[in-house]
Amino acid sequence: MTRRHLAPDPAPHRAHAHRPAEALTPLTPRPLRHVLFRQHWRDLVFLHWPADPFRVAGLLPAGTVPDLHQGRTYVGLVFFRMENLGFGRTPPLPYLGSFGEVNVRLYSRDSLGRRGVVFRSLDCDRLLPVLTARAGFGLPYRWSRISSRWFENRLLYATARRGGGERSGSRAWIDVGDTPVTPSPLEEFLTCRWGLHERFLGRTYYLPNAHPAWTFRSCTLLGWEDGLIPAAGLPKPDGEPVSVLYAPGLPVRFGPPVPLPAPGPFPA
Predict the structure, then answer these.
(1) Strand, coil or helix: what is 132?
(2) How many beta carbons lie within 10 A of that of residue 102, not counting itself?
(3) For the chain, how long is the longest CA-to-CA vector?
(4) Could you give the CA distance from residue 99 to residue 83 in angstroms, rounded to a whole number?
(5) Alpha helices (H) in 100-246, listed in sequence order
(6) Residue 58 has pLDDT above 50, yes or no
(7) Averaged pLDDT for residues 51-63
(8) Average pLDDT over residues 222-246
(9) Are 258 and 10 in contact (CB under 8 A)?
């Protein structure tokens, strides 16, 4: 991920213009014209808890607000394996392009109505991608130890930050079934996200992505521990997650970053 200039916004807007929130769609409402980089996500585990919108608002980049579902917002803890990271049309990177990742994410919306995610932390077990993502995009990557192991139909993820002690890690232990699962309206809200918001070099940008529709399989959460959400500035999760999802994986493409328009009022 090399440092790039932010692409111009495709349609200039007045400072006080705004749009209602875009619809939740299984495929991106904005097809990518150019691909900046691509990757494959595998064996994803999503855990989610409700979060205080007022507290979340203080953690989001300028120009965005918490995205709400029936008056609530959420914090997600997501485990997965990334593979075949590549740039543009070049072949995937050998070795450095495949690694484990665990992220803490919040849900955002900007004045153009685009729904996104805001990463409060991204733990990765390859140092070079960590340094590149931080320098090129300002993303809060951390170098960590991450393991994922299958025991027949059970999947265990565990992570610990280097030098961070036992409380700066996380763990999820799930039993995965073969039955396809249709996501609930809440789970569509949490997973139908077509970009991320981040602030870098004094500007907030939107980084779009595109991928096939999610497929989920039945799963049961057998156990979990977490120190990453408190480290990200939110209270430790209280009780079991309200949503647990497992997805086998899919290919993902990212377009160039686009700066947000000048701040203005948001729709209610």
Answers:
(1) helix
(2) 28
(3) 56
(4) 7
(5) 127-137, 185-191, 228-231
(6) yes
(7) 97
(8) 96
(9) yes
